[in-house]
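Note to self: keep these together.
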Amino acid sequence: MATPQPAFRPGSPVPVPLTSLVGREREVAEVGALLRRADVRLLTLTGPGGVGKTRLALAVAAEAAPDFRDGARVVPLAAVQDHRLVAGVLARALGVAELGTPPFADQVGAAAGATEALVLIDNAEHLLPAAPLLTEVLAACPRLTLLVTSRERLRLSGERDYALLPLACPDPERRPAAEQVAASPAVRLFVERAQAVDPGFVLAEGNAAAVAAVCHRLDGLPLALELAAARSPHLPPAALLARLARRLPLLTGGPRDVPARLQTMHDAVAWSYDLLVPEEQALFRRLAVFAGGFTLEAAEQVTSFELRASGSESDHPKLEARSSELVTLDLLAALVDKSLVRRLGGEPRFEMLETVREFGLERLEASDEEEEIRAAHAAFFLTLVDASASPGAEEGAGFDRLEAELANLRAALAWSCAGASAVTALRLATGFGRFAYHRGDHLEGRDWLDRALAIAPDDRTVLRSAALSARADLLRDLGEHGEAERSFGRARDLARAAGDRAGEATALTGLSALADDVSDHVTQRALCEASVAIWRGLGDRRGLAHALHNLGLAEEGLGNFAAAGALLREALECAREAGDVRRIARTLCSLGDLHLWQGEIGAGLSRLEAAIAFARLARDRPEVAIIANDLGWVRLELGDVASARSSFAECLGLVRETGRRRLAVIAIEGCAVLAETIGQRERALRLVAAAALLREAMGIPADRDSRLTAADSTATVRTLWRLIGDVPRGEPVWSMDEALREATIVASTPEMPEATAATTEPADAAARAGLTPREAEVLRLVAQGSSDRAIADALFISRRTASKHVAAILAKLGVASRAEAAARAVRDGLA
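Structure:
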């Protein structure tokens, strides 16, 4: 008589949690659907510590249990410390009273071979050597389905991985309304847990922004949110946010009835860190130096030295005698698998959650390698800064790369400006100043330059001269004329003392631009002639193009139009020889303005249209703004009000992005004339009054602006002067922000027929090129020099989606780079 099979008594019943699961409705549905599929018998739920894997798995198991004849059970492994004990734990959970001499699979099959159940195996990451036992269980029990939680994949045949991400957070920088904040899964969890300990807690307009920022700063990690919410009786959201500059010390005090590693975020991350082999630990703490993510190239360059544990054989299975790059790649892949680092979409880019990174920084600070790693980090990003100064069309691409690495640049600057390296600080700050000038962050650029100059001894004359010139460029655009002149003058003197002829010429060119600002064209010409002589002697075509350009502007200001034209054409030729696309755009713009001075409106308009195409190709947003403003004035002169509005609107948008006060004044004055033209006289007068106040603050009054004082002024300029004379005295004057807002209203185009007519042709051309309407929008932004991040912000899409659209556009147009796409857009009328 056959011995009956023992009754199946797997594990423990699925416990009923004492708190609700918040914000995981989609994940519960997706994981449950996977478990109901016949081809999914081993599903591993992976994710970083504190992301809520166990909590989600329990909810899924409870919901899915009725779909399995024998229900669902839980096998907790957190307390099991030795992988050799796992066979006994699994065997007992599957109904084997005690493991004997027969093979493990035979005993499990005899006990549970006919059982149809869902078995949740919780916390397997520290017992991975025993993972192959699960394959044996599945083979012996063909009706079992296993749901495993682990911080890394098991790497078993037939395994299906489901990566659990943190809860979605509102972006505090977008300042969402309270109802939008309340809809966020992370906020919902925070509010529910806060109300559990403080029944009076309410999410309202007054605290919504702080709650959103708290959730964002905690990366949407459920454990971190719950620990922070527990502080609500004592710390309102704003106070909590202020204390989260260092997250881990505050995130303590979890429930006593959960495992110790989940009572604080520090312990949750430490649990994962302690499971790493020494080489993985070394890479993990070194990667913490990166802020805002990193590329594989950056990881290799900054962290890859001596990754083997010194004085011992490696425990890592893939560390043989291999190149440091391959070793770094293998170790990085291991950290991704263990949910300590995550890979982002698009290019190979990685990041740590900030809560995890803070733990890594603690470990880096406790090691003896922090200074070496930080120096390597600063050196790597200094190479990117230096590369961004190339003169060709790829300069925009270089600035795009710096945009993606902005957080890392700031981290490197902070380290070097704290006194670690005066040379690195000066070089980084000077390069960042150029970048800040390009992106419109003048105040930040000046601040880093001031900090770097403060720690650099006076004997660093060449570097100090370059830094002072970069600082003066920023100050000039901020309208701080006197301080800019002093900075350029000091840069010239230092360069001359050091025998740095290029640095001296750069400073002279900058001083000449300041003279141009106040229409002192005699001084401007003398400074430019000295600069031209230096650049000719050095044989530097790029520098010569800039100096000749400014000399041409000086001759134009003096009324010597023939000489100005010859100099500008020579400057254009030098810029083309040097491949300096930005200078080509700027010189074409000046040639266009010269034609306008001489009453050659058609030729001037043609030059300006060519100039803006090159400026977009170079992704030179400041120059695009300048040329768009010039086009607005010209089109207004021609009576093309709709096109003038469009040009002024583009200029104003870029003025707000770049913060250029001088250009803001000219654009506001142009919109004042536009307002007068369309019958909005009161607004026109108030715009002119605001512009006059700004000119006074910058020391550039209208009666010293050669653009407004020519004897044969255009009709638009004459209109502006009439408005200036009619401004009522004693009336309140708008601030610059108010004036820009009102100017934007004037430049908006409410008339739909005009807007439709203006966009029909590019839309048709885009359709013929196979572009969707959304891709056509993206291409227009690419042609304007927008980065993927800027495109995402403008169209309210994710950066990943923006990157995908750009990649699709390049493929459809058959081009290899954004610069080529921009050129094609301009050439074929696609944008």
